[in-house]
């Protein structure tokens, strides 16, 4: 596979990848906030990693119940983690926060005709709060995420990396990597707060690399290495450019 990532379609996909890498840092959870949640003890009064993970599993169940896209689930988790990493949330309010994040993601990603009524969403979730409670919490969430609902998610990177890999495989080998399996692994990762500390691009590529290793798809190793290098070089060059822009004279030997 000498001509790795050099086809016209690959170059177009790489441009899309660069755009995602550019947007990636803008709407991600605060890692320090997530670490505080991880270090919290379960005394019923503080948010813990276990409670967060249970809430995300509930959101996954809702996603599956309504047949929503994985991107909707991925965005809902992003919103929840961004909020939790900034705010101290009491466990009794977590359900309302989680459902608000989920509803925001649904309205952002899904077609309007598929968006359920807030009352139906609450009823199916078996919560006791009201539609007014949900709307109030939704506004609070929006304020705390600075009204930036859209975010670059690990699912977007997973799709793009997968497309790049498929583009560089012979037609007869394009079934060697199953996207549904990769998707399922990403959903499982979202249900662990540990993985929310990783950049979405790193998480997505790691899932693919591990699957390739498990499936012993040796022919894909070179593509993965190229994608890892491309993403790493992109960040290195970006950091260099930003440092040069802020202090150009500092780079002159």
From TrEMBL:
Is Glycoprotein set as a keyword in this record? no
Domain (Cyclin-like): give its ranges: 57-143
Q: Which UniProt keywords apply?
A: Cyclin
From the UniProt annotation, give the residues forming the signal peptide. none
Q: Which domain of life is it from?
A: Eukaryota
Q: Which Pfam families match?
A: Cyclin_N
- The answer to whether UniProt assigns keyword Aminoacyl-tRNA synthetase to this entry is no
- InterPro entries reported for this sequence: Cyclin, Cyclin-like_dom, Cyclin-like_sf, Cyclin_N
Of which family is this protein a member? Belongs to the cyclin family.
Q: What does this protein do?
A: May play a role in growth regulation. Is associated with G2/M phase arrest in response to DNA damage. May be an intermediate by which p53 mediates its role as an inhibitor of cellular proliferation.
According to UniProt, the name of this protein is Cyclin-G1
- Native organism is Myotis brandtii
């Amino acid at each position: 596979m000498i001509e790795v990532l050099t086809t016209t379609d690959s170059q177009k996909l790489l441009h899309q990848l660069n755009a995602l890498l550019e947007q990636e840092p803008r709407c991600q959870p605060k890692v320090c906030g997530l670490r505080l949640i991880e270090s919290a003890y379960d005394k019923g009064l503080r948010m813990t990693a276990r409670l967060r993970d249970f809430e995300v599993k509930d959101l996954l169940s809702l996603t599956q119940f309504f047949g929503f896209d994985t991107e909707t689930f991925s965005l809902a988790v992003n919103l929840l983690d961004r909020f939790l990493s900034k705010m101290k949330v009491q466990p009794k309010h977590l359900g309302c926060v989680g459902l608000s994040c989920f509803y925001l993601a649904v309205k952002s990603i899904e077609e309007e005709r598929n968006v359920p009524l807030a009352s139906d969403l609450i009823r199916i979730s078996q919560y006791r709060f009201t539609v007014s409670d949900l709307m109030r919490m939704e506004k609070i969430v929006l304020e705390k995420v600075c009204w930036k609902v859209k975010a670059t998610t690990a699912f977007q990177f997973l799709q793009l990396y997968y497309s790049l890999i498929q583009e560089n495989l012979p037609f007869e080998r394009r079934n060697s990597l199953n996207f549904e399996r990769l998707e399922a692994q990403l959903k499982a990762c979202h249900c662990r707060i540990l993985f929310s500390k990783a950049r979405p691009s790193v998480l997505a590529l790691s899932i693919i690399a591990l699957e390739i290793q498990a499936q012993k798809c040796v022919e894909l190793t070179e593509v993965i290495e190229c994608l890892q290098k491309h993403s790493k070089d992109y960040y290195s060059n970006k950091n260099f450019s930003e440092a040069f822009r802020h202090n150009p004279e500092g780079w002159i030997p």
